[in-house]
Amino acid sequence: MALRLIECVAPADAEEHILEIVRKYSVVAQWSRQLADGRREVQILVDARETESILDELESYYAAGPDFRVLLTPVEATVPRPDKPEPNDEPSGEEEPAPPPDRISREELYTQAESGVGAGRSYYLTVLLSSLVAAIGLVRSDTAVIIGAMVIAPLLGPNMALALATTLGDEKLARKAFVANVSGLGFAVLVSLAFGSFILLIGHDPTASESVLARASVGYADVILALASGCAGALAFTKNASGTLVGVMVAVALLPPAVSAVLLFVGGEFRLAGQAVLLFVTNVIGVNLSAVCTFLLSGIRPRTWWEADRARRASRRAITAWILLLIILVAILSLD
User: Fold this and answer.
1) Which of 13, 192, 214, 302 has CB 3.0 to 4.6 Å from 262, enough for a Cys bridge?
2) What kind of fold does domain 106-335 have according to CATH?
3) For the CA atoms of 219, 138, 199, 283, what is the dihedral angle to 10 degrees?
4) Are 218 and 329 contacting, i.e. CB atoms less than 8 angstroms apart?
5) Distance of alpha carbon 14 from its chain centroid, rounded?
C-alpha cells in the first residue's frame, strides 16, 4: 500500500476541526505537536489514494488563511508495516467520502508536470544530448544507441504536461508546456541540421542508413501504437510508475522521427523527409489525444466547480482538435 504523509500547519484552534475532517478517511496514524510560534502541526499518515480528497477539504476551509500550510511527502517505508486501515464506521451527519481513485493526487500530478516543462539550461542540454545520440544511432543503424535516445525522451514530459493542463483547464501550465514543446523541438531540429550538414560535408550520406529510412514510413499500425502508448504513458504518469514510462518512451519515441526527417531533408530526400514528419506528427497526436482521454477517465478534475466548468470546455476543444487532426492524418495515409 502506497502511503503519503500529510503535514498540516494551522492555527491552534483549527486542530480539532482538521482531525474531524480526516476522521472520515482510512488514516494509518496521526500525530500533532505545538510549534514555537503557537501554531499546531498535525501529521497524518494515509493511503496515497485518499490524499486528494483530504487536501481538497483542507484547502476549501483553510487555504485563504495566512497561517495555513500543507506539505505532502511520499513515504518509502514505515516500521512496523501498517495493516490495511479500516474505515471509520462511526455514524456521522456528514456525507461519506467517495471511494478513492486508484492514482496519486492531483497536486502530485501537477507538481510532476510542472517540473517537466522548465525550459531551462538542463532541459536544452537534455534535448542536445538526446538529438546527438539519436542522430548518431540512426546514421550507424545502431539499435541500442537509438533506444538510448528514446529513453532520454525530453519531449515526452512537456506533452504529458500539455495533456494534463488541458484536462485541468490550466492556461499557465498549457503555455509553459507549449513553449517547452516548440522550443525543444526547434532546438532538436537545429542540432540535427548541424549534425547532418557535418556528416554530409565529410562525405557520408545521412540517408544511406536503414534506420533513417525505416522512420520514413507510417501506417495505420503506427496510429494505433501512438494511441495505445499515449494511454499507457498517462496511466503510468497518474500512478507515478517511472518504470512503465521507460517502455512508453521506447514505444512512442518523438525525437528519432524528427531527427530522421532532418537527416533526410539534408540528404535531399524531401518526400521521405515528409513521411518522417508525418510519423512524428502521428506520435504527437496519439500521445496527446489518448493522454487527455485517460486523465479524464481517471477522474482528474479541478477542485472547484467554476474551474471544472472551464476545464470541461478546454478538454472538449482539445479532444475535438486532436480528433480532427487524427482524421486528417488518416485521410493522408489512405491517399498514400
Assistant:
1) 192
2) Glycerol uptake facilitator protein (1.20.1080)
3) 40
4) no
5) 35
The residue with cell 501498517 is: 82
In CATH, the number for domain 3-75 is 3.30.70.120
- CA-CA distances (angstroms) from residue 86 to 27, 47, 83? 8, 11, 9
d(CA 334, CA 105): 42
pTM listed for this prediction:
0.82
- What angle is formed at CA 249 by the lines to CA 190 and CA 301, rounded to 5 degrees? 105
Taking residue 116's Cβ as centre, other Cβ atoms within 10 Å add up to: 21
Residues in the chain: 336
pLDDT tens sequence across 68-90: 899 999 988 888 887 765 555 55
Domain residue spans of the chain: 3-75, 106-335
Q: Which residues of 41-76 are buried (b: 16+ CB within 10 A; e: fewer)?
A: bbebbbbbbbbbbbbbbbeeebeeeeebebebeeee
Quick check: 73 and 105 in contact, CB under 8 A? no
Question: 117 near 180, Cβ under 8 Å?
Answer: yes
Determine the distance from the C-alpha atom of residue 188 to the mean position of all C-alpha atoms in its chain, rounded to a whole number: 20
Which residues make Cβ contacts (< 8 Å) with residue 234, sequence separation at least 6?
Answer: 160, 163, 290, 291, 294, 295, 298
Q: Which of 329, 246, 244 is nearest to 285 (CA)?
A: 329
Residues lower than pLDDT 70 in the chain: 1, 84-100, 241-252, 305-306, 336
Residue 75, C-alpha cell as written in the block = 513515504
pLDDT of residue 79: 86
Q: Which of 203, 217, 226, 221 is nearest to 139 (CA)?
A: 203
